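Example 212.
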Amino acid sequence: MSYELPPLPYPYDALAPTIDELTMRIHHGKHHRAYVANLNAAMEDAEWATRPLEELLADLTLVPDDKRTTIRNNGGGHLNHMMFWEVMTPDGGGFPEGELDDAIETAFGTVDELRHQLSAAGVARFGSGWAWLVHDGEGLAVTSTPNQDSPIMHGQTPLLGIDVWEHAYYLKYQSRRADYLEAWWHVVDWAKVAERYAAATRSAPRLARASA
Ligand code: MN
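Predicted structure in complex with manganese (II) ion:
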């Protein structure tokens, strides 16, 4: 059983100047690749590893004690980054539409207020982690997690996450995390976030399973 590093859905330089090519190459080719390799090594041929990653992260007691931290960090890292590449696009920015826009207005009033709260959550996260827009079962909410923890661990469905590890921005923005978070909205793919919202509120979830 193993997971694979998916190719980026766009070239490494496609998100520049918001995110520079070298940052994308290292982030995807080194960091995400390492999460996948560590995840696969920890799963070996374990029976529990046939369960989807989402189920394991939702209930880490399914994972033996000696593998739990590795799965939390690297399973979370793999899922978080698969989402991250997906919710960015070179043609990003603008505003959400349709039911997602309605849900944002209900929860936050305006899209600008959501952006403000998400960026603030990213700035406030001490050390490494993520800022999230989640569906919590009732509606939309902004949260943040440390390290590679996933909102799935708290029963929430991640719709959009912004990586605030230094590896995500330091080459271009150095210590200016707030500038990275402000610029990030130029590459957000609202259509993909809307797809994830529709999946979270209607259809059966797409789960990440290791292939034989
Ligand atoms: Mn990362």
